[in-house]
Amino acid sequence: METVVSGIRSTGKLHLGNYYGAIQNFVKMQHEYNCYFFIADLHSLTTHPTPADLHGNVKQVLVEYLAAGIDPEKATIYIQSDVPEIAELYLYMNMNAYLGELERSTSFKDKVRAHPDNVNAGLLTYPVLMAADILIHKATKVPVGKDQEQHLEMARTFGNRFNRLYNVDYFPEPYAFNFSANLVKIPGLDGKGKMGKSEGEANAVYLSDPPEVIRKKVMRAVTDGGPTTENQEKPAEIQNLFDLLKVVSSAETLQHFDALYNKCQIRYGDLKKQLAEDMVIAAAPIRERIEAIANDAPYLRKVANLGAEKAHQSALKTIKEVREIVGFRKF
Ligand code: TRP
Fold this sequence. Notes:
CATH topology of the largest domain: Rossmann fold
CATH class of the largest domain: Alpha Beta
Helix content: 40-55%
CATH superfamily of the largest domain: HUPs
Distance between the termini: 35 Å
Strand order of the largest sheet: 1-2-3
Mean pLDDT: 94
Structural class: mainly alpha
Bound molecules: tryptophan
């Protein structure tokens, strides 16, 4: 069975875009592959979070992924810092990652531009740690968005370089997992791009939002003055609302509002009310599970320990072999 690895950023609450865009795929994948999903708390140290914030974010992400349907009995869900072998492999990989290529990475350049006062070595070697995350389980499939393509290419480079340096065929090449066939783009409520892309709470509906917050956000979504000719094309902000309906509402509801739009009889208030109610219905069970799991410390401890144990077993096997290859041998 092929191995899948994906790292989850330990910042921020999950929104409907994360849910329909990525998590539903994780949930499907866990039945078909040997999946490792981890919370990337080592990566998050580049921005120097306080210990309390760091811990709180890790907990929140763990809780929300479990609530959204990741099954800790099927997939291995773990916290990166629980598996010290990752840090060890990162050290070895740093020996064949070159300054020039790290400096040329677009995500590094973006971060230097955004935070010129905090250009630390961890930021520079972020792609090396990410490569270690993937190579430690010898994964071949990595379900990530387009923005991670360059990082994946670097992971292949570092793995191949290791193979060449030691004249072994040890690390397989990891590739972005392409589930584009059923990849849905979830727009935000501000009439612009993807949910969660722009700043501000109002653009995104979070899985943890209570019904009244969801209703308020949806009612404030950007619309236009309404169609003036029959069957006219929908402007972006209106198409966004229809795209959201497509995801959370029934086919009849979608057809109903589409027909009204085409006859120039649509009332956006009605559409938004329906959209809000369907979002409430979609989010409610997840939100209930978020609350239950967040208050169940023994369960969280059990899940974290189980994940750490399973990930550790896989990582230890790799690191023992890597040590042997490198020449760290027992006397
Ligand atoms: N860099 C990824 C992101 O920003 C997170 C990540 C870290 C990751 N390590 C990984 C993703 C390993 C896949 C595999 O989203």
